[in-house]
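Lab notebook, bench 4. The sequencing result for the construct came back, and we need a structural model before the next group meeting so we can plan mutations. Quick request posted to the team channel:

Model the 3D structure of this chain.
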Amino acid sequence: MNSRGLAIINYAPFIGLRYSFSRKRNRFTSVIALVSMLGMVLGVTSLIVVLSVMNGFSGELRGRILSLVAHGYVEGGATGISQWQSLSTQIETHPEVLAVSPYITDKVILGKGRVLRGAVLTAIDPAKEKNVSDIPDAMLSGSLQSLDEGSFNVVLGVTLARMLGVDVGDRVDITLPRLTVTPLGIFPRTKRLTVSGIFEIGAQPDVHQAYVSLSAGQKLLGNKGSVDGLQVKTTDLFGAPQTMAELARELPQAYVTRDWSQTQGSLFNAVRLEKIMVSLLLLSVVAVAAFNIVSTLVMSVAEKRRDIAVLRTMGARSGGIMAIFVAHGLGLATVGIGAGCIAGVLLATHISDITIFIESVLGVKLFDPSVYFISELPSDLQWGDVMAVVVASLSLSLLATLYPAWRAASIAPAEVLRYE
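Done. Here's the predicted structure in token form:
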């Protein structure tokens, strides 16, 4: 490195930081500098907290929905799968497959008196279902095994049961998308079921999901020994797409394989897109703070014209002057970003406790579990997000310093000193 480069490194940061934190600045310039730092603190804190909360929501959503959803599916098309037992045995031989369970599903209407609600009826084998999903652990009352204890028992989601006004032991009427031909005409097929259990996972399936036993489902939906498909649980949730792709190559072409990223992927993609859009919106707060840094530096350049002229006459090059004001702006930005990171990390890691404290002080419930499926704000602080916020904020701040620094470097010392 030449002597010129060493000189810039030696004096530019020192003078720039002195300009940033000197008490002898113009009062108005000091106020603008303080506002720009506070704006940076607010923007960085908001970004870190919001990203952590959205990570928490995404994790809650994934955990709750995927606890009820199998990792993969093997379907038989319009005709279903008649020899599903042998196919199940073949699939279980795959080293990445833990369990397989048959299912039949269709949309139905459940009714109690004059109250009617649409639902998704899924017929399962309770003994096998516990190996592919966590529905047995989500039972509020009754048990999943109760489906085998009666010919036509049904297990309902807690919200669906609440909307119908039923509890364990009550009876509900089901209208199926099948027709019954009688001498009096053609009528939809209906059946009265007994509620033997209620489950809650705290997500959308609580609103529309109903379960019956596999034998009851075959009678109700007329499958006559066949099933719609097989649910597959793999050793690794995130490796399920690859496992199902391998099964697709091994199984006959008559079978269609899907994984959870295809059945639920649109929901998680929407959450990811929402996180990106909210991040961009909140980044505008940081951009506004960066524009305040521009204002601070422009006024600082006007205030330090004499100093700039003296430095130029002492041999400072234009690059050194630019480096001084870049260091000046980055000094202000770094303080704001650092304070924002500390505040954001503290808030993100204690957001649940803060929510509980506010609820106790105000005497209100901010998050009603019956409405939001959560009782407190979930938060998942990821250091990758913190680093991305810091890099983005520093990049915006650096861009904000370039124009004022160029203006400072363009000042002609002879014109300034002529009037001194």
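Residues 3-63+268-418 form one domain.
Will bring this to the meeting.
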